[in-house]
Write a structure and sequence with these properties.
mainly alpha; Leucine-rich Repeat Variant; 17 helices; TOG; microtubule binding
């Protein structure tokens, strides 16, 4: 028993020895670094804290740049910066130029649009939201963005549809706002031709957001613009969206049908048909639907207009 008692201290001493060596290794003269954990030291700034510090400035509060020509000259390079804070500042510069100095932004508009598309793919929330806000200001200032190349606009449209379909609410709402500005400022017919391709998109939410934008276009079109697009083609788009799985897409399709029927009835009245002669207008409308759609789809479309 005495021998066993004496062995225990030796065993403890062996275990304690590495700890002592570790303390020695961590000393300043050892040349090895140890992670500091001082409760009195200030916490390091994190990326999340930086994003919270980014201010999202409303368009009406965005002032003019002090040196707009210099800002425009270096804008594309700044938008491509690896520093996300500089990228956010450049996006706000682009917004300011679009609002207060559109003539300076116009010569480089296509390059700016492509750079904004790139920032819209940035994983940082601050960069993403500011880039979408820049889209809204550019739409409001320039209106017809089809002045840029088809490639640039197609990339921008796709990103807006994808961002409007996200789960992040603040991103989705900002993208929807940008798409409303797009539908309100651009000529409806060429925009409708661009949006038509997304009716068959594999993503349900992208289809729904495209359907909403299509309904906004249809609401701004007169009968001549609808005929240029194709009354049958537009009816087919609406009929396909009426069978979509998402209620948002189906509601947008009903809005398209309502806009078409309203324009159709207005043209009938302009041709001299009495507005009170609803049966004649209804018969002409049903005939158009029957010629353009399969029987089941035609019945669904005419049911919408008969209940209005």
């Amino acid at each position: 028993m005495p021998a066993a008692v004496e062995e225990r201290p030796k065993k403890v001493a062996k275990v304690a020895a590495p700890a002592a060596a570790a303390v020695k290794a961590a000393s300043p003269g050892s040349g090895k670094k140890k992670k500091k954990n001082d409760e009195n030291s200030a916490p390091r700034a994190t990326a999340a804290a930086g994003e919270q510090a980014v201010e999202y400035i409303p368009s009406e509060e965005l002032g003019a740049a002090s040196h707009p020509k210099a800002k425009a000259a270096g804008l594309v390079a700044e938008l491509d910066s690896k520093d996300w804070i500089r990228a956010c500042e450049a996006l706000n510069d682009a917004r300011s130029l679009a609002i207060h100095h559109p003539a300076l932004l116009n010569p480089i508009l296509e390059k700016v649009v492509l750079a904004i598309v790139k920032t819209m793919k940035n994983p940082r929330s601050a960069v993403l939201k500011t880039s979408i806000m820049a889209c809204t200001d550019i739409f409001n200032s320039f209106g017809n963005l089809l002045s840029v190349s088809d490639d640039a606009f197609d990339k921008l449209l796709l990103q807006l549809l994808l961002k409007a379909s996200q789960d992040k609410r603040f991103v989705c709402e900002e993208a929807e706002k940008a798409m409303r500005a797009m539908a309100a400022s651009m000529p409806p017919l060429p925009l409708l031709k661009k949006l038509k391709a997304y009716v068959h998109h594999a993503n349900l939410r992208v289809r729904a957001k495209a359907a909403v934008a299509i309904s906004h276009c249809a609401a701004r079109m007169d009968i001549e613009a609808m005929k240029e697009f194709g009354m049958s083609a537009l009816l087919q788009v609406a009929a396909e969206l009426l069978n979509d799985r998402l209620p948002e897409a189906r509601e947008a399709a009903r809005s398209v049908v309502g806009s078409m029927h309203g324009a159709f009835a207005k043209e009938a009245a302009a041709r001299g048909e009495q507005e009170g002669d609803a049966p004649a207008v209804a018969a002409s409308w049903e005939s158009l639907c029957s010629l353009s759609l399969p029987p089941i789809s035609a019945q669904a479309v005419t049911k919408i207009t008969s209940s209005q």
